[in-house]
C-alpha cells in the first residue's frame, strides 16, 4: 500500500507538500507542483489515512453514544433517533452498552477518544461525572442525556433531560386524584439522578395531598447488583408480587419505566390480581409497547425524538465551536398519557374485593 512518502518521491516534492494538497492548503502552490502531486496520487492509487487526518484537523465527523442497555427498547429508540439526527448533520454514530458501570463507561470513552471521536453522549444519569473528568481534560466533550448538567459544568458541556421530578409529580397527582392513598414505587436501585428525581416527585405529589409515601412501599431491586436495566421486566414482576403480598398492600404503583410496568402486569397475574381492578399501574417513558399491552399502559411520556435531536445538535455545536449564545442545558417537559391501567381504587372492605 502506497504511503504519503511514496507519493512525495514520485512527485519530486516533500511529504509536507503532499499533505498540503490533501488538506486543501495549496493557494500559494504553483499549479504545476499541485498537478504533479495529483498525478502521483492517481498513479499510486494512494488513499489518505483518514484517522491520521482526523487527529491533525480535529474534524472527525463521528460522535459516540453510551447507553445503559438496549435491552430496554427506550434506549434502542434513543440510539435510532440520535443516529437520524447525526446523519442529518453529516455525522456518524458509534454506540455502546455500558449498563451504567462507571468503569465500563470510562473504558468505552477512552477507546472512542483514542479513535479520534471527541464528542460522546452519555445517558446513564449518574449522580456524579467525576469518573470522566480526566478524559475531558484530554479533550473529550461530554453531552448528558437524561441528566441535568447543572452542577457538573466542569465535566458536562451540554445536556438534555426531562424534568424527572415533574414527571413523578404528574404520576402521583393522577393517582391521588383517582382516590389512591396507598401508592408504591417500583425501581431498580435508586442511585441515579433520574430515579431520585422521579421518586422525589411522587413523594412531593403525595405530600401536597396530605399523604406520606410509606418507605416499605418503595421497592428497589431487592438487593440486585448494578442498576437493573437489563432485568427490568423480571424485576417489575417480582416487585409487584412482593408489594401485593404485604399485609397492607398498595392500591397503585408507579414504576421507574415502562419495562418494569409491563413486568408488573405479569406479577399481578401471578397472584390472580387484575389491573386496574386490584392495582393501578403507571409507567414512565411511553415506549411503543405501552399502547399495545393489555390494558394499555398509563405512563409519563418523554419527548424522545425532540430530546435526541436537541442533544445531538448541542454536542455538535460545541464540537464545531458554534455554540456561543446557545443554552447548554435544556430541560424538556414530560407529559402524562392516561390509558386503561389506572382507575379509582376498589373498596377493599368488601369481602369479595382485593387481590387473591
Topology:
Blueprint: H1 4-11, H2 15-22, H3 31-44, H4 50-57, E1 62-67, H5 73-88, E2 92-97, H6 102-114, E3 119-122, H7 133-136, E4 141-145, E5 156-162, H8 164-178, E6 183-187, H9 193-208, E7 218-220, H10 232-244, E8 252-255, H11 258-270, E9 280-285, E10 298-301, H12 304-320, E11 329-332, E12 335-337
Parallel strand pairs: 1-2, 1-3, 3-4, 4-5, 5-11, 6-7, 6-8, 8-9, 9-10
Antiparallel strand pairs: 10-12
Helix pairs in contact: 1-2, 1-3, 5-12, 8-9, 10-11
Structure description:
The chain is built from twelve helices and twelve strands. The chain is of the alpha/beta class. The protein has three domains: about 5-50, lambda repressor-like DNA-binding domains (434 Repressor (Amino-terminal Domain), Orthogonal Bundle); about 60-160 and about 305-330, Rossmann fold (3-Layer(aba) Sandwich); about 165-295, Response regulator (Rossmann fold). A six-stranded parallel beta sheet has the order 2-1-3-4-5-11, with helices on both faces. A six-stranded mixed beta sheet has the order 7-6-8-9-10-12, with helices on both faces. Helix 7 links the parallel strand 3 (about 120) and strand 4 (about 140-145). Helix 1 (about 5-10) crosses helix 2 (about 15-20) and helix 1 (about 5-10) packs across helix 3 (about 30-45). The chain is elongated and about 90 Å long. One of its GO terms (molecular function) is DNA binding. Keywords: DNA-binding, Transcription, Transcription regulation.
